[in-house]
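Deviations from the work plan: none for this task. Representative record:
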Amino acid sequence: MSAINWDLWGVLAGGFCVLSIYSFLWKENRFYRFFEHVYIGVATGYGVVETISNFVWPDWLKPSLGLDLQPWESYQWWKAYLFVAAAIGLLMYFMLSRKHNWIARIVIGLGLGIAGGMAFQGFFGGFFPTLVDSFRPVVAHSFDPATGAPRLNWWLMGGNVLFLATMLCVMTYFFFSFEHSKPGIKQASAMGRWLMMVTFGAFFGSTVMARMALLIDRLQFMIHDWYRAIGSAFGG
Amino acid sequence: MAGERRSFSEWLLAIDRRLVYLLVLVALAVPLLAAEFAPYTARKLTLPPAPLRGARQLFDRVERIVNERQEAGAAYDKIVLISADFGPQTRAELYPMLECTVRHLMMRRIKFAIMTNVPDGAGYCKEVPEKLARELGCEYGKDWVNFGYKPGGSFLVRQMAAKLPEAIKTDYKGEKVESLPCMTGIKDAGNVSLLVEITGLVGMFGRWPAFFSTPTSRPDMAHGCTSVSIPDAYSDLESGLICGLFEGIAGAAAYNDFLEGIRDPEKDPPASLAARVHMTGQTVAHVLVIIFVALGNAGVLLSWWASRRRAAGNG
């Protein structure tokens, strides 16, 4: 008796799952509902196994228990600190107890404090280059490649003026500390709203593209893998 | 009312959505079917990608690494770090990006490390380099290293910036990363020449510019994003926060074209056609959506015009 080809049956089952999920486009049905739950369960299970096999075991349990030592190495007791860190993390589960859930707040507070501190660094590292770039000259020069003499770069100037006008209009829209009825403010705010609409249009267009990509991937799977798997399983 | 004849505008506004789905399905399936059953015809019929600026900048940055390595000689102690933070949900767009980045690095024999911060990405981190290593003759541990799935988010990135091997500890096989030849001399973020983050998840990329730097240096960074995130990512590219950008699947298709330009036909196998085929299907479907949007708006306008005419006639 030949061994079961698990890869083949995996692909066949995958194709059936895809069809069941996409059956939602026709109408809501039990197949779709069932496989939606299957997907969530599989994704969660996969995440747990990956975390244990790729992190908890090699990076935490093995070193803390000294299982990664070579025959000539001796256990270093300071590595037991890994258990202290884990014990602090496990305090989070006290949130399931009504009486002792205050203990979980210690861990939450610790996490919030660390996240707050990191947010400062995160802001400067992540947003400063963009912030600095927003200070753009409205009179910009470029250099003639032949002579090296400076000359006005009208394209760059136009782009910078458009950028600054857009930024000021959109910022005006989000100033809620005064009424937007005054002349100048009203028009700038309205323009800011329109400019954001243009951006949302760009977002919509790119979102459509991304959604198409999801379907393309599944179609690729159905045409390339599933079709061949059906041929192998039933066509001989 | 039964038996009453509908006007054209009414018909336009009452098109069954399932018909729209069917047409989109056909538009996307035809290029894939052609690529499967008539690959030579498909190669001719696929649309050429635009030479996108973000993808070009990333390609040029990788090429500059070759020069930097030559100039530094034996003292060169830097790697490229790829963070492939995606799963099956965004595989269609992001997998070709990972593939062409790894292909380029392997073609130029640039050492790199690959890792993921999401459990679903672990399979791709293993599959893509191993597949391309067989084609291009690269060796695990010497040419690349796979850190596997590493949870920890921003904390891990912060640790990696200061002490990379200590933060990562082991590769996906459980071996200590310090023991791998590829990681010789790699200490912190200063030893990373380029970081490529390929993700469709919000906030994933932001951790790298925020935390992955030493007091004296910050690696160049590039972003491979899904189409949804392109408008956001452009501001990073414009401001110089990133040195390159994969503009969705089109970015990967363009990158493959650039790779074709440096490929040695006798040594290197051709890049995958997948990105180009996917992009063709996506473009056709996009045009279809534009037509539907135009038809829908035409239906609304015609209906409004007809109601105005009826109102004028009654008046």
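Residues 49-272 of chain B form a domain with the Rossmann fold fold (CATH 3.40.50).
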